[in-house]
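Project standup — Tuesday

K.O.: blocked on the structure for the chain from last sprint. Re-posting the sequence here as requested.
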Amino acid sequence: MKDSIIILCGGGPAPGMNTVVMSVAKTFLSNGYRVIGLHGGYSGLFSKNPRTEDIDFFKADAYFNRGGSYLQMSRFKPTQEDFDKNFNLSLFQDNNIKLLVTVGGDDTASTANRIAKFLEDKKYPIHNIHIPKTIDNDLPLPNNTPTFGFNSAKDEGAHLARTVYEDARTSGNWLIISAMGRSAGHLALGIGEATHCPMTIIPEMFNKTAITLDKIVNLALSCILKRNILGIPYGTVVVAEGVFHDLDPEEIKNAGVSMTYDEHGHPELGKISKAVLFNDILEKKFKAIGLKVKTRPVEIGYDVRCQDPIAYDLTYCTELAMGAYELFRKGETGCMVYVDAFGEAKPLYLKDLQGADGKIPPRRVAIEGGIAQNYFNHICHFITPADYEAAKKYVPNPEAYDFKKILNW
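H.V.: unblocked you, prediction finished:
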């Protein structure tokens, strides 16, 4: 029987899922392996009747450049009981599987780390290698290397935000944009910088002060007031959904929002429109201070996850897939693939990346780094002490909207 590998995809989709899976398939097929696709993410590893199918060259060649994921994904997270009683070892033994390739974000990587420990403890002769994806760009890769899917999502997000900005300029209104990013603001910041948005609000900004709804609102107002002073009565504000994730649940509840939580304990932000939520709160603030501003909400999220990958991710995902083979060939296991700027694949051992809780902690925006600081200092518009006198035309207390005072920067 041929040596085999098996591939699964966990979490939510990102541009390049098919590119990675089908490039892994092509690489291993060309080296004499049988390639098996496992549907249902990790659930298939702990099921007596997993849904699998062989991936041949023709299937791989037909899907490698498409958006979405040919392999059905899931957010299934195995319990300790699953590991103790339900791990489907016969799936590996009956198919002579030598390698498990997992594709996913931080939760998938954390589970991959648990799988690595399990395989090692049981002394099963099965290698496992993880390939990092997420449009949130929040896995801890060296040298600010992106996760695959991020650049494609940013590209489409920026396309949408450019159109929205032109609508704001043409109509003389303000458009409030919410961008995906559960615990990090990379996507929102990338969209904001690419479109010269005059204000982007991300959770990492609150590194020196507690995050509150009032501060989020005042940051948006700081921008709107500054542009009024400059005679620019329009613009966009991009808000990362992570700012709502980091809020005290009571604040969200007091804002009239009822939250549910997923199987990992994360608020299910995808079930509500953060743009509508924030826009409604802003409108109440405008009314309270007597400011006449027209705003409209726009959500950027699920519409960027399954698009076709751009050339950057087509290339990058192919390099990651070939890197997975190179690491396996060298005997590596329990690691995540990292491909440097020269295309060299290197292992990042999952056990070295885990936090005290055993999970892989998210990489957040380096808020004091050049990318963020240059954007805020040179592209954004906001109230400073020099604007106080002019701002009194619109509000009696302009210092309350001073960008750096709000953030304690």
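K.O.: great, moving the ticket to review. Residues 150-171 form the longest helix (22 residues). Residues 4-148+309-353 form a domain with the Rossmann fold fold (CATH 3.40.50.450).
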